[in-house]
Design brief:
6-stranded antiparallel sheet, mainly beta, 115 residues, 4-stranded antiparallel sheet, 0% helix
Length: 115
């Protein structure tokens, strides 16, 4: 797993070992522990590398377009929906693409004969 997060932006890119890539844009909150916990601390910039080697324990996409993921390291990723475009994009080349934005998300599964 590789993680890329610019220190001055909310965007986050997580590349998983199997070639799946998660890209977020807009309000993205990465915390150690649940974001709703009283002592939750938002991680910024280089602190996102704590996800390297992690396994996704759960991922929930909400009707609002928000996304929440929990990792084996104890990190929680919360992505708010936005009106300006996809808040989160999960894709694996030539296999699937899933977009999450305000309102319903969209999933596209590629057939072997798709280009």
């Amino acid at each position: 797993m590789a993680v890329d997060r610019a220190p001055d932006r909310d965007d986050l890119t997580v590349a998983f070992a199997d070639g799946t890539v998660l890209e977020t844009s807009g309000p993205t909150l990465l915390t150690y522990g649940p974001a709703t916990a009283p002592d939750a601390v938002a991680l910024v910039g280089e602190e996102a590398v704590g996800l390297v080697g992690a396994t996704v324990l759960s991922a929930v996409a909400f009707k609002s377009g928000a996304l929440r993921m929990v990792f084996s390291t104890g990190h929680h990723l919360n992505v708010e929906s936005t009106e300006s475009g996809p808040a989160a994009r999960l894709r694996k080349d030539r296999v699937f693409e899933w977009l999450c934005r305000e309102g319903p998300g969209a999933m596209r599964v590629f057939r072997p004969d798709d280009n």
